[in-house]
Design goal:
The complex is a heterodimer of chains A (585) and B (189).
Chain A (H helix, E strand, L loop, with lengths): L6 H8 L5 H7 L4 H10 L2 E4 L7 H7 L5 E5 L19 H10 L5 E5 L5 H10 L5 E5 L2 E4 H10 L5 E5 L2 E3 L18 E3 L9 H9 L6 E3 L6 H10 L5 E3 L9 H12 L6 E3 L21 E3 L7 H8 L7 E5 L3 H11 L5 E5 L14 H10 L5 E6 L4 H10 L5 E6 L14 H10 L5 E4 L5 H10 L5 E5 L5 H10 L5 E5 L6 H5 L9 E5 L5 H10 L3 E6 L15 E6 L12 E2 L16
Parallel strand pairs in A: 1-2, 2-3, 3-4, 4-6, 5-7, 6-8, 8-9, 9-10, 10-11, 11-12, 12-13, 13-14, 14-15, 15-16, 16-17, 17-18, 18-19, 19-20
Antiparallel strand pairs in A: 20-22, 21-22, 21-23
Helix pairs in contact in A: 1-3, 4-5, 5-6, 6-7, 8-9, 9-10, 11-12, 12-13, 13-14, 14-15, 15-16, 16-17
Chain B lengths: L1 H16 L10 H4 L41 H14 L7 E6 L5 E5 L6 H12 L5 E3 L3 E3 L3 E7 L4 E3 L5 H7 E8 L1 H7 L3
Parallel strand pairs in B: 1-7
Antiparallel strand pairs in B: 1-2, 3-4, 5-6, 5-7
The chains are: A alpha/beta (585), B alpha+beta (189).
Chain lengths: 585, 189
């Protein structure tokens, strides 16, 4: 029986499918489904901006309204990718400006965005609504001003942890004088002061504003004034609190918070003095998300705050919370889904803080909905990992950073193999995993055997040999992103498992023992991969067997990059001609 | 149990047919294992079964591993400045280090080092070069590389010329100069 649906019917059915993964599956069924799907996809996600050309994307999805792009590899966050590597937004903006002028939303992560990009966005997309830049760099507040001034229907403008050339606070005054359609504004990463009066007036004429994240330059007085004008906020990022506490200021602030009856998410809190925390008590019972990871407040004050947050689902905090504080979280925050504990001293000389593996064990016992963990801790034990795994088989994201490289189970002196085995075995829905501490090849055998749903895996200072990489590449069925640093394997496993790499988005290897020769071989064998050798010293001048510093391998249908800097080598580079550059603007 | 051993054997035998470069009979992969990372001082695979996992060489020097612990710079910088403001222990004196010819900048924490020799050793390991012999009169001799720093007044000085504490207080950033420019600096008496 040949079922052929009229295309209008098919279109209607497919329009209900939101998930891009499902849409990707739909598009593989047959040509007519492919055609129908592509004509109805409005939200396009490109996980690696070099995997496909902008023109191809624009061609395939004529109804695109929202574009999300990611640029640099994840380890760029930790300074492992040299400046100038790439990830330029310009070619994408330029192409979309011409071919997809109805684009309304652009979300970029780890990309280089210039003022020219922002100006082109402002000029080209008539109904532009959403701009979210995460961990981006290369632009100044002038570019932001262009967006503010020109995009009359702008709803969302969020700069998340970007490196911005801050030329002053004038950009804020460029928003339209009459009412704005702003729903969300996040300028928390900007340094310089914005005129409070500009901010007050903006907030007053933005009736739809629901999310406001201020920068540290906004003071307590400023915060209070803004809250009075926007009691409807559901998300707030405060300014800083470093001013001395004045009783009148405190009571005004308290009152302002009390009037914010819809506040669900609270962040910022830079330098918050413990004396200010009681002003927040009134919003605590309603909070679902609390980011205290920049608050250098100590345990007793933290606990007073946290025990009032019974609806909390997401908590980001520093290790100043200590085990005791986490014990309180475990007993009071029964709705907790996500916990992140950051180091208060982010280097190897970790201060002697009373945060140990026990803190995470408490939370795993007390919080039945816990599914996402990021935990920095000086050392750990297998027993703790096994307990956590037993308590919380529903964990989907488990990122443990044992700060001391090669640290074994400090009670038994064994590797942490058994502990991570338990995590892999019991957490059947695990999608993201970061391992650390002393690990042998065995740990990776276990992970490969059990962690069948893991899509992203991060490894550092672990393993003994090529076996570890062989296990991961031959065993982890759902693996899409693998990033490894400082592990002692060579060429064998990589070459043996070359075909696996086409099923993944990307593989990052740094400070391992993979040779230049292997990179060349891999490139020759696998034409649909870009094998980038990122090395300070041009590898062509060294013996083929010498290991290279960093390798970034990703599947692509776009062919070789045209914007590679000197220190990136691929097999396509012609040394006589030199580096070919796209106009980067 | 036996299947895993069989698999191990299979895998080990792959070496015979593996794609390699170089003349048959040579095993150049093992010979030229330069340690590209100062921290990866691990025992070779033959010691998989050893019970004590202490590596032979000393553990990585604190404060020197790039990008570890994996905390975003944005976060590091925001906590760092707060710490400097609140407690004046001088904890975390981060300065940028550049080397002529290298496309990267590194950042180091001067408070991690107790003196010039520790600092220079760290720089040597980080950028893989050697400083020459230092003498007050002649500066650094015997190497193309000269470690210099920019002080609060914007002057470029030779590392080692002033007492350590003064250096830590006044240093804004470091630069490892190369070649002729370096010579000029080294000869100033």
């Amino acid at each position: 029986m040949n079922l052929r649906l009229p295309s209008k019917v098919l279109e209607h059915i497919i329009s209900f499918i939101d998930s891009n993964e499902d849409r990707n599956s739909v598009s593989l069924v047959c040509k007519s489904w492919f055609e129908t799907e592509r004509k109805t996809r409005k939200r396009v996600f490109v996980g690696n901006c070099y995997a496909i050309t902008p023109a191809a994307v624009a061609r395939r999805f004529p109804e695109m309204r929202s574009l999300t792009l990611k640029g640099k590899p994840h380890f760029a966050d930790y300074n492992l990718v040299p400046d100038g590597w790439g990830g330029y937004a310009w070619p994408w903006i330029e192409a979309m400006a011409k071919k997809s002028p109805s684009l309304e939303e652009i979300r970029l992560k780890r990309m280089v965005v210039t003022d020219e990009c922002l100006e082109l966005i402002a000029a080209s997309f008539k109904d532009f609504k959403v701009l979210v830049l995460t961990s981006c760099e290369g632009f100044s507040t002038d570019g932001i001003a262009a967006i503010a001034a020109t995009c009359r229907n702008l709803r969302v403008l969020e700069l998340r942890e970007c490196i911005v050339e801050d030329l002053g606070g004038d950009w804020l005054s460029y928003f339209p004088e009459t009412s704005t359609s702003l729903v969300s504004l996040d300028f928390s990463c900007l340094d310089s002061e914005v005129k409070l009066s500009d901010l007050e007036r903006l907030v007053s004429r933005s009736p739809d504003l629901k999310s406001l994240k201020l920068n540290p330059a906004v003071t307590v007085d400023g915060l209070e004034s803004l809250l009075r004008r926007a009691p409807q906020l559901t998300e707030l990022g405060t300014g800083s609190f470093s001013a001395e506490l004045k009783p009148e200021a405190f009571s005004k602030l308290s009152e302002a918070f009390t009037n914010c009856k819809q506040l669900k998410c609270l962040s910022g809190l830079w330098d918050v003095l413990p004396e200010y925390l009681p002003a927040l008590y009134s919003v605590c019972p309603g909070l679902t998300s609390l980011n205290l990871s920049y608050a250098t407040v100590r345990m007793p004050d933290l606990v007073e705050l946290l025990r009032r947050c019974s609806k909390l689902q997401k908590l980001w905090v520093m290790d100043l919370i200590e085990d005791k504080g986490l014990e309180t979280v475990a007993s009071c925050c029964k709705e907790l889904r996500e916990l992140r504990v950051f180091p208060s001293v982010p280097d190897l000389d970790a201060t002697n803080v009373a945060l140990t593996e026990q803190g995470l064990v408490f939370v795993s016992q007390g919080c039945p909905k816990l599914e996402s963990v990021l935990y920095f801790c000086v050392q750990f034990t297998n027993a703790a990992l096994i307990t956590i795994a037993r308590n919380r088989p529903n964990i989907k994201c488990f990122r443990l950073c044992v700060i001391e490289p090669f640290a074994p189970d400090y009670k038994t002196n064994e590797p942490l193999d058994k502990g991570f085995k338990a995590i892999a075995e019991r957490c059947k829905y695990l999608q993201r995993l970061s391992v650390s501490g002393l690990l042998t090849d065995k740990a990776f055998k276990y992970i490969a055997k059990h962690a069948k749903k893991v899509r992203m895996l991060s490894v550092a200072f672990a393993g003994d040999s090529d076996l570890m990489l062989h296990h991961l590449l031959s065993g982890c069925e759902s693996l899409k992103k693998l990033e490894i640093r400082d592990c002692p394997f060579g060429d064998t496993a990589l070459l043996e498992n070359a075909s696996k790499l086409e099923t993944m988005r990307s593989l990052w290897l740094s400070s391992c023992f993979v040779s230049f020769g292997a990179c060349k071989l891999l490139s020759q064998k696998m034409p649909r991969l870009n094998v980038e050798v990122i090395d300070e010293h041009p590898p062509e001048t060294r013996p083929e067997s010498s290991p290279v510093e960093r390798i970034y391998i990703y599947r692509t249908v776009a062919g070789p990059r045209l914007d590679m800097p000197e220190f990136v080598w691929t097999i396509h580079k012609n040394p006589e001609i030199g580096v070919s550059h796209l106009a980067i603007k | 149990m036996s299947t895993s051993f069989e698999k191990m054997d299979e895998f080990v035998n792959l070496k015979e047919t593996e794609l390699r470069l170089g003349l048959p009979g040579t095993d150049n992969v093992c010979e030229e294992r330069e340690k590209v990372s100062c921290c990866n001082k691990r025992a070779l695979p033959s010691e998989i079964e050893s019970s004590t996992r202490k590596s032979e060489t000393s553990p990585p020097r604190k404060g020197q591993i790039v990008g570890w612990p994996p905390v975003r710079s944005y976060r590091k910088n925001n906590i760092q400045t707060k710490k400097n403001e609140s407690d004046n222990e001088g904890q975390g004196i981060y300065v940028k280090v550049s080397m002529d010819g290298a496309p990267y900048l590194r950042k180091i924490d001067l408070s991690c080092y107790k003196g010039y020799s520790e600092l220079l050793k760290a720089l040597e390991m980080m950028f893989k070069f050697c400083v020459g012999e230092y003498s007050e009169r002649q500066g650094y001799e015997g190497s193309d590389f000269v470690p210099t720093y920019e002080d609060k007044d914007g002057d470029w000085m030779l590392i080692g010329d002033v007492p350590w504490e003064m250096f830590v207080r006044t240093c804004k950033r470091l630069r490892i100069m190369k070649g002729s420019e370096a010579k000029g600096l080294g000869c100033v008496v």
